[in-house]
Task: inverse folding
């Protein structure tokens, strides 16, 4: 049998199963029965992406199967094999969606089944930044459980997102290996059709971040091939169905690595008999480069550990800035004052504390460099959170003097001590900020008295000075803005214009960050944009900005305004922290943040809003932005500013309240403005919201109509 | 995807018609007019049934006169004519190779010619059993040159390069008694056999035709290719442009035309000479622009990225632009028409080789020993001619396409190395290509070669066949004027992957190649022999089992027949779009299209309907796949 014949036969098998499953379902529920996956605006995501048609009920699903059949041509050509692979994937999606009829929860722990849109949006940023350098789909059972788990662990240590299908899930359970989204090892399901849930993630990424139009199958495949760094590890034995699924994966550009002797296709279907070499073979096949910073510590260091949680019972020791004096700080020194790679611990080390106790800590990273500027200090400092969380068995939250750190017993027992914390900070700062940091030393204090003294005499004055500097940083006060195209790997036509009062919509790039990024890599993603030729001050439109946007979007965008949501609004890649959209009834705007899962008075959930706003396209009336932008004086300045805000999820409102209230007070003299803003406890529909706003006398009601 | 679009044959023709208007204005002749004058062609000649070998004749065979005066029948006459045709081609290619070997004898560290690829020289020397350890590379070059020249006349033994073929192929040759001996001897034997009163048995004549062809492909041509690489560098992928639009109106345009890179390489060197550039500026030009025509163009494009102005039937067009200061030629495929044509313009028609001397040309003899001076004189002559340009006659059709060229076997293997996985694969082999073929991602490969011929709408057969093949996931390797047709159409632009089937498209994307690969000039078809041999060795199959065929849809020269014979003899089925002049003999036709399969496991297929020719090739490729069960 030729390779293509195997694909065709696997495809025929799955098609047959799908056909009878749909017929059975129709017999049972009737053709009008609704079918949908939970938490997605793209139902059914794969079919919708490939054909541009949404499927809502069983009758439509049956029609869709007819369309799938047309893909199943049988010439001995790769196109036919690819399309049959795609058809197999779509059939798998149909089989899977049937499991969710009537809001059923077909998957139980540890399996996840379908992954909702919020998961994809969460993964978007780390995929863009390379913090997740790749996505592994492991299919079937490894020769032994030990080999399977070792493979999973090897990817995890590299920060690669791992999804599991079939026997490998049992193997992880058998050895008690921890899985879950927070450690980036996601068991999907035990049947082969559940592999579609991984494919669905890649495909929705193309729709959300790539602005791929549903129905543009060629554009979709081009996007996934060039921009989604996924690959498949399929364990022997491979049956025809798995080979057919593999053809679908390869069609999307995802190489398949297997330990079964079969046909070989360079960079696409690779036979690797030695499972211990799957990792290296896969990374090479998908051209994934792992940034290696060899850090001399006794435990693993990888972005996969960023989400790891250390519970009290597993904790060796804790440092807690909310109870005792703690802080972290970067400070610039003269070259002569810094001894490179010096790490000094002043006070007791970890083995000097009793198990489960709470202590003070202060660590000061002293840097020197010819191109170092004090503006970069907070930029470097902000990365400590991510650095320390990447240490296996270490948890870090907060910043400045509100930090909290936990070290697990396991990590302590592996020999981890405070000097290793210093090693991590040293190695990361030196490697990531090589352009500005020439020398770096780390001082770690655990002596209570020293911590208290340094906090008040050294840290607080620095923090105050920085806040002052930040407050004086206004759009008018600087000569240049910066472009940011960090997301273009994913969203090829999106450009952020970052100004002091409008940070990047992902929330991760402030004007200072952009400045530092430009300094670190002058040819890199952040470029200087001048702002000399103003077109319209009211909406913040500049000729120079337009030219830059046109250039960096490869002509996709002609003009943008900085301060308007209606006229030429700035585009979004899909990484936005928040989306703001017009709510016509109340003459204001509602804001939803990524974490918010419920309904908004606009009548759309965050994922639904996001599906209209992403992909680098201008959508007047909708805008993606960072949380910090909400309290900016430039927020929707053209439409009247923050007093247009009529609704926000409660949690978000609490996060921004202090600064937003200050802005409202300063701009309009309104006290406690956030009390006037609705949330999901008040209303999830426009009518109830309007009644609430009228009761509170919300200023938006008396403003000029927005549209 | 951008704005990629092929240039159509209609656009080619519109450009040519516009140039012919200029020609009419100045009273120039053109091949299009001469074809009319020569039509209809002599039927006896077309069928190969006219014998002019002794002065008892000419004799021509008709139903009423079935034998010549000597008694030779039509099969003997057709067979003899076919063998002589082959001998002409074999002698021509091999003599080109001989010139290269002689040039190799002149290399010196500070001479006109140097060793640019010492690694390759050492590799060949080792193959030939020559001691290389501790030897000066130039001494080695001289020693190898003498050994190579001996291949032309050695009294005993067969060609050294035959050992490069798979063992099975070598055995077939031995069994069929067609292993070529000394290169010149096979030509002499051919002429001897066809003398009045020698062979008239078709089987013997065709056997010698194959042997004479093999002495070209595995002898003279291979020497030409290999030692050109040693002196001028082994080609590797390089970007260039193709079609008449590469000529530049405000530059001195020098066109190099012919076959031997010894001349063109030197001309290119001197066009970059600051003294010459200064001279060009002093006469009002912005600089000097060199472009190529015919196989010389392939040589310099492959090695230096020099743009390709056109192929065989474009040679008059470059003069008709009115912007050609000099057309500098060496040997082969040069229209004598260029002489009178150049007189209608300011163009200098500069012949350089005693082999190709023509009326109405400036003869500047080119010698390896004085190559630098000769080249400088030629360039100077061209530059000084810029002022004689007649602006009212200048029209350069603005057609050109991007092309990536330079796929020697070495470069192909290097490209394939890039898609290997170091965890499982070895490098330096053709195995990735074999894997693409056995898995079905690629259905097979076609080596398309050869000339233009007014019997076929120029370039249309090349281009249409290539489009058809790549759409069917068949990768195409090209040489000679076929390669230029592809480049001018845009098929060597990497964006042409959009015209491919899903399989070839994916291969192009992963390997970063265009779907049709430029392997060089017509002597470089020897590269294709090596590629086929490597594929056979790496796959463990015989060459004839590989889903691989050869094709010459617009062939015209004796060289093409010699090529066809060595390609078929190497086990590669060969498809022709123009009939060889053998149709008068059913026996000879039978041998060529079927009988020789018993000796070499391959034969010719002739089909003048180009679309059908494409279908036949695809069918043959699929048959070979089916036989292998892949």
Result:
């Amino acid at each position: 049998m030729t390779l293509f014949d195997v694909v065709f036969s696997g495809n025929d098998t799955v098609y047959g199963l799908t056909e009878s499953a749909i017929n059975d379902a129709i017999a049972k529920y009737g053709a009008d029965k609704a079918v949908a996956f939970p938490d997605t605006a793209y139902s059914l995501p794969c079919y919708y992406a490939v054909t541009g048609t949404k499927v809502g009920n069983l009758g439509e699903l049956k029609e869709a199967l007819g369309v799938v059949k047309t893909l199943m041509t049988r010439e001995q050509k790769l196109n036919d094999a690819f399309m049959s692979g795609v058809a197999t994937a779509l059939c798998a999606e149909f089989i899977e969606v049937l499991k969710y009829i009537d809001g059923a929860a077909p998957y139980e722990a540890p399996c996840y089944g379908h992954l909702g849109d919020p998961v994809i949006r969460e993964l978007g940023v780390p995929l863009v930044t390379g913090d997740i350098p790749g996505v592994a789909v492991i299919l079937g059972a490894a020769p032994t459980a030990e080999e399977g788990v070792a493979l999973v662990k090897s990817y995890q240590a590299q920060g690669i997102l791992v999804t599991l299908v079939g026997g490998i899930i049992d193997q992880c359970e058998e050895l008690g290996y921890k899985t879950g989204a927070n450690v980036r090892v996601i068991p999907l399901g035990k049947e082969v059709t559940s592999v579609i849930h991984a494919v669905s993630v890649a495909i929705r990424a193309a729709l959300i971040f790539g602005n791929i139009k549903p129905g543009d199958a060629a554009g979709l495949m081009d996007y996934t091939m060039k921009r989604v760094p996924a690959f498949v590890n399929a364990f022997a034995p491979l049956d025809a169905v798995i080979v057919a699924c593999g053809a679908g994966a390869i069609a999307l550009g995802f190489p398949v690595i297997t330990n079964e002797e079969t046909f070989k296709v360079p960079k696409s279907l690779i036979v690797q008999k030695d499972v211990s070499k799957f990792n290296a073979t896969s990374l090479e096949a998908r051209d994934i480069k792992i940034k290696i910073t060899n850090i001399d510590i006794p435990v693993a260091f990888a972005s996969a550990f960023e989400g790891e949680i250390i519970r009290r019972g597993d904790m060796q020791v804790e440092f807690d800035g909310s109870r005792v004096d703690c802080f972290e700080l970067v400070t610039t020194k003269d070259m002569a004052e810094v001894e490179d790679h010096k790490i000094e611990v002043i006070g007791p080390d970890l083995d000097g504390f009793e198990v489960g106790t709470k202590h003070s800590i202060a660590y000061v990273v002293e840097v020197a460099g010819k191109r170092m500027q004090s503006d970069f200090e907070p930029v470097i400092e902000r990365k400590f959170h991510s650095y320390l969380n990447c240490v296996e068995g270490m948890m870090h939250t907060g910043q400045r003097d509100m930090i909290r750190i936990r070290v697990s017993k396991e990590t302590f027992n592996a020999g981890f001590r405070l000097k290793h914390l210093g090693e991590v900070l040293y190695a990361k700062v030196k490697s990531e900020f090589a352009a500005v940091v020439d020398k770096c030393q780390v001082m770690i204090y655990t002596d209570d008295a020293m911590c208290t003294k340094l906090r008040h005499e050294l840290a607080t004055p620095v923090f105050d000075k920085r806040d002052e500097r930040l407050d004086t940083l206004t759009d008018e006060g600087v000569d240049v803005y910066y472009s940011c195209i960090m997301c273009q790997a994913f969203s090829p036509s999106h450009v952020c214009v970052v100004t002091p009062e409008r940070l990047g919509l992902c929330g991760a790039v402030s004007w200072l960050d952009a400045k530092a990024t430009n300094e670190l890599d002058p040819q890199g993603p952040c470029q200087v944009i001048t702002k000399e030729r103003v077109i319209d001050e009211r909406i913040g439109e500049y000729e120079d900005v337009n030219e830059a946007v046109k250039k960096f979007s490869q002509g996709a965008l002609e003009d943008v305004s900085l301060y308007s949501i209606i006229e030429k609004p700035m585009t979004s890649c899909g990484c936005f922290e928040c989306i703001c959209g017009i709510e016509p009834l109340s003459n204001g705007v509602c804001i939803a943040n990524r974490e918010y899962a419920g309904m908004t008075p606009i009548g759309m959930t965050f994922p639904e809003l996001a599906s209209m706003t992403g992909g680098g396209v201008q959508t007047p009336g909708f805008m993606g932005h960072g949380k910090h932008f909400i309290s900016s004086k430039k927020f929707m300045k053209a439409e009247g500013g923050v007093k247009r805000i009529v609704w926000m999820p409660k949690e978000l409102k609490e996060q921004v309240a202090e600064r937003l209230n200050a802005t409202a007070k300063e701009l309009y003299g309104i006290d406690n403005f956030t009390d006037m803003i609705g949330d999901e406890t008040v209303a999830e529909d426009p009518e109830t919201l309007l009644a609430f706003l009228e009761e509170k006398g919300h200023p938006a009601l008396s403003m000029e109509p927005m549209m | 995807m951008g704005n990629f679009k092929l240039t159509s044959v209609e656009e080619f023709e519109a450009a040519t018609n516009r140039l012919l208007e200029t020609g009419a204005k100045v009273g120039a002749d053109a091949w299009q007019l001469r074809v009319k004058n020569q039509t209809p062609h002599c039927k006896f000649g077309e069928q190969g049934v006219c014998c002019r070998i002794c002065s008892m004749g000419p004799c021509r065979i008709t139903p009423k006169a079935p034998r010549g005066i000597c008694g030779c029948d039509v099969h003997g006459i057709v067979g003899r004519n076919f063998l002589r045709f082959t001998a002409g081609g074999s002698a021509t290619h091999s003599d080109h190779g001989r010139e290269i070997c002689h040039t190799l004898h002149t290399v010196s560290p500070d001479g006109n010619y140097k060793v640019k690829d010492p690694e390759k020289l050492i590799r060949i020397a080792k193959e030939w059993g020559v001691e290389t350890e501790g030897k000066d590379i130039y001494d080695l070059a001289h020693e190898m040159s003498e050994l190579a020249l001996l291949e032309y006349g050695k009294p005993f033994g067969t060609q050294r390069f035959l050992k490069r073929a798979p063992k099975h192929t070598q055995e077939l040759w031995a069994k069929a008694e067609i292993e070529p001996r000394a290169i010149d001897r096979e030509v002499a034997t051919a002429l001897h056999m066809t003398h009045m009163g020698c062979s008239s048995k078709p089987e013997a004549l065709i056997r010698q035709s194959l042997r004479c062809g093999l002495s070209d492909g595995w002898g003279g041509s291979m020497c030409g290719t290999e030692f050109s690489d040693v002196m001028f560098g082994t080609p590797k992928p390089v970007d260039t442009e193709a079609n008449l639009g590469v000529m530049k109106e405000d530059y001195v345009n020098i066109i190099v035309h012919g076959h031997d890179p010894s001349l063109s390489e030197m001309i290119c060197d001197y066009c970059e000479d600051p003294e010459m550039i200064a001279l060009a500026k002093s006469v009002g030009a912005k600089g000097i622009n060199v472009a190529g025509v015919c196989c010389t163009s392939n040589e310099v494009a492959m090695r230096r990225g020099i743009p390709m102005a056109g192929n065989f039937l474009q040679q008059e067009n470059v003069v008709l632009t009115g912007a050609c200061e000099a057309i500098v030629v060496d040997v082969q495929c040069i229209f004598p028409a260029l002489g009178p044509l150049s007189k209608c313009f300011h163009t200098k028609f500069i012949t350089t080789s005693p082999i190709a001397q023509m009326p109405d040309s400036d003869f500047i003899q080119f010698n390896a020993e004085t190559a630098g001076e000769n080249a400088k004189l030629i360039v100077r002559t061209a530059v000084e001619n810029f002022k004689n340009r007649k602006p009212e006659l200048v029209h350069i059709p603005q057609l050109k396409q991007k092309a990536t060229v330079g796929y020697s076997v070495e470069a192909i293997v290097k490209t394939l190395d890039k898609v290997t996985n170091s965890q499982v694969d070895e490098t330096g082999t053709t195995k990735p290509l074999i894997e693409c073929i056995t898995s079905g991602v690629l259905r097979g490969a076609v080596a398309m070669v050869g000339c233009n011929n007014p019997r076929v709408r120029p370039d249309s057969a090349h281009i249409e066949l290539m489009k058809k093949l790549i759409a069917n996931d068949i990768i195409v390797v090209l040489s000679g004027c076929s390669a230029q047709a592809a480049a001018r159409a845009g098929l060597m632009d990497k964006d042409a992957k959009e015209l491919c089937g899903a399989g070839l498209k994916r291969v192009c994307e992963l390997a970063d190649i265009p779907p049709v690969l430029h392997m060089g000039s017509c002597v470089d078809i020897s590269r294709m022999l090596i590629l086929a041999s490597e594929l056979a060795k790496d796959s463990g199959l015989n060459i004839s089992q590989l889903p691989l065929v050869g094709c010459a849809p617009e062939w015209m020269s004796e060289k093409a027949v010699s090529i066809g014979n060595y390609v078929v003899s190497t086990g590669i089925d060969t498809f022709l779009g123009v009939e060889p002049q053998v149709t008068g003999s059913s026996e000879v036709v039978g041998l060529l299209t079927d009988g020789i399969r018993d000796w070499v496991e391959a034969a010719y297929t002739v089909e003048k309907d180009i679309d059908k020719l494409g279908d036949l090739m695809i069918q043959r490729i699929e048959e070979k796949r089916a036989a292998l069960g892949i």
Remarks:
- DSSP finds 25 helices and 16 strands in chain B.
